[in-house]
Task: inverse folding
């Protein structure tokens, strides 16, 4: 269990990041109030950028507007809309399979329990946490590459395994702020605490950061100034 001082430090970091990124929110486009659309966007975002996903989902959702439409579609139909994304064949197969399972086992409603979500094709631990937190307001913090990297650098966790990082952050932060923490850590990782060359000089939490495994910039060596030449004595 973290100490009171560790929790207080984590809270100060969260407050500073929230002040820097007050607009932080999920960057995947979907119709809010439609958990199925969120699930689709999250599955599509694996190894793809949010920007790339947001380019394909408008046409995809126009053609297949809900979970029953996906359940009745073939993977090949879905593929046609998502070909610009990596692993599109696997993703299309997963989405049709997930839709069929939701219709068959859950009456067409995306389940609210993480364990049930994780049984669906294409939905892993991180995706399930994103879905329950964003769609159902459940206290969960999904750990993606940004959340994991930034948390470790700041000394909020010593772990690499996303599940253990999630446990560490959950123990440090108030439940009602876990979703907010998820968003601001991602925004911070994308905009300032980059994987390579984090912009520590622009960072709102630099004074609190432990900079674990962060290489300090090498000092630029400058040539020492030449000693002033002695004035020659005039020839006689
Ligand atoms: S000080 Fe540097 S390493 Fe630490 S959180 Fe800020 S940007 Fe990342």
Result:
């Amino acid at each position: 269990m973290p100490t009171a001082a560790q929790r207080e430090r984590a809270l100060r970091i969260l407050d500073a990041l929230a002040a820097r990124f007050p607009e932080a929110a999920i960057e995947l486009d979907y119709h809010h109030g439609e958990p199925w659309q969120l699930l689709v966007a999250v599955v599509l975002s694996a190894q793809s950028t949010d920007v790339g996903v947001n380019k394909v989902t408008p046409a995809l959702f126009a053609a297949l507007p809900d979970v029953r439409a996906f359940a009745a579609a073939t993977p090949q139909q879905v593929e046609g809309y998502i070909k610009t994304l990596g692993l599109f064949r696997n993703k299309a197969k997963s989405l049709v399979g997930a839709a069929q399972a939701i219709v068959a086992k859950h009456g067409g409603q995306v389940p609210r329990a993480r364990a049930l979500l994780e049984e669906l094709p294409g939905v892993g631990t991180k995706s399930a946490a994103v879905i329950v937190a964003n769609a159902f307001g459940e206290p969960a913090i999904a750990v993606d590459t940004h959340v994991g990297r930034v948390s470790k650098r700041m000394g909020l966790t010593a772990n690499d395994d996303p599940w253990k990082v999630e446990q560490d952050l959950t123990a440090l932060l108030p439940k009602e702020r876990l979703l907010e923490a998820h968003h601001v850590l991602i925004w911070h990782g994308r905009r300032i605490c980059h994987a390579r060359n984090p912009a520590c000089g622009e960072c709102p939490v630099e004074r609190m950061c432990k900079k674990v495994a962060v290489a300090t910039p090498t000092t630029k060596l400058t040539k020492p100034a030449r000693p002033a030449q002695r004035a020659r004595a005039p020839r006689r």
In short: Residues 4-24+140-208 form a domain with the Endonuclease Iii, domain 2 fold (CATH 1.10.1670.10). Residues 218-236 have pLDDT under 50 and may be disordered. DSSP finds eleven helices and no strands in the chain.
